[in-house]
């Protein structure tokens, strides 16, 4: 194999090293510049969403304050037509393009006076701004108002939508004598956003939308289109800048900022969503990357030429020395070594040796670092094994606890099954012996039926829990009258309550009537909770069932008793399958330990949750929460209840 010439070798080495260095620096600097530009774009989208959210809060808070101040100045609102009040309403409506309507409804819900006398003599009893204002104030959401739209022409074929707000007007005793309500045109959010966006570049292609907590679109800039799935990601929480693919196939840089309110105005609970196509948002960053890449290629070519020139300069003295040595070997007596002192080849050789030692030292340091890393990994693995061992110990303890619970369950089931079976056998033998009066025979047959039904109920509980535990229990959902269902359950448990000297009562929120649920399973939940409450409440106590609305419009069903209660240490036990609390107070209370666990599983199948709040010797409260989408709120129901 022919040896490689030194000039070629040095030229190749110099070229590769310089090109690699240039391209590496180009890639790093280009990536850094692009990343910085992307961060600037992300922060700009975040800041824009924040500015628009604050602007919307400020504008709505201003109308909120104006309405509160106007309510404070309202005099003689109960007169049929008060010129001063009518003038105030007309002036307020004329002072703002966003205030579409403002009016006053008396305590019965009749609209007495209004701006431009629109909707006067109509009823506001079923309108949210009237009945939800209470004795303070109310801020609603974006909704259509057909009665008001008959006075308003459509804009571009689009039906107008409004934001409703109201303030209660109280008399000297603090009782409500009327409500001052107003409708704000929802286009104020779009107009305000358009004004803010107009201050930016014309080709930014930034779009805006306002969504509520359920991901419903309330307002948006023209041309904005998105699916409910896209918007639901931003409706429940604020989101920092992120790059996502939307259902229209376009990737957007988006950010969502929540309304935080201003002053006494608590905020809308909405989110302002800003999105910008990825190509527009990061266009500058990609231009920078391309520019840096072109500069890198140019510099690489310059350094390539420089490398070849440098290799020729370094190889020339060594080639001269090789030529002189060849001449000397061939016997040329006058051949001498060229004067190459200026090149200092030996000095470079020493420098190369020193570099070699430096490289070896660096490699040794790398080996030491690797040893330390290996030790850390060994320690980490040891810690993981210790954690896994602890988890196995915990799992074994849980398995032993479950085995004990099952043993306890089998013992209870043995007693629970043996008792009705013994009754069936005993009464059947008595009937078989004959010579019994007819009345006594009928009583024994009734006892046999009661025992058989009790036995069937126990078996059904075990089968239902097994299905729920295996996730094979299916719901047959329909609209259910919750009040009738609870009333029926109370009637079924009334004989038992009378026998034990207990009082049962119920109270209902007027807004809670119909729910979407499996009627049989929901009835099973109520009967299990009532049965437990009656079982562990001593004579003279009471059991109360109530319904109402929980935060986030969830349905709340509460069963409260004045019984023996559950200690904090035992609350998790009673919710475990086959789990029963053993103490002197409930030792005589028979059961399988499946009632509360089965009830909890049935509630979870409906998408709900169950909580237990109990104080020993004072009582227990069990709360069942069902999702808001299972509750049916009918306006006619609200009007009838009021």
Describe the structure.
The structure is a single chain. By secondary structure, the chain is an alpha+beta fold. It has 3 domains: 6-39 and 284-329; 50-233 and 242-275, PAS domain (Beta-Lactamase); 474-641, Heat Shock Protein 90 (2-Layer Sandwich), CATH 3.30.565. The protein is 53% helix and 19% strand. It has helices at 6-73, 83-94, 128-131, 146-149, 187-198, 228-235, 278-281, 283-329, 345-433, 438-469, 482-500, 519-535, 571-574, 595-605, 635-641, and strands at residues 99-106, 111-114, 137-143, 162-170, 176-185, 207-211, 217-220, 239-245, 251-258, 271-277, 477-481, 503-508, 514-518, 542-550, 554-561, 609-615, 619-626, 631-632. The strands form 4 sheets. The protein has a 5-stranded antiparallel sheet with strand order 2-1-5-4-3. The chain has a 5-stranded antiparallel sheet with strand order 7-6-10-9-8. Strands 12-14-15-17-16 form a 5-stranded mixed sheet, covered by helices on one side. β16 (609-615) and β17 (619-626) form a beta hairpin. Mean pLDDT is 78; it is low at 636-642.
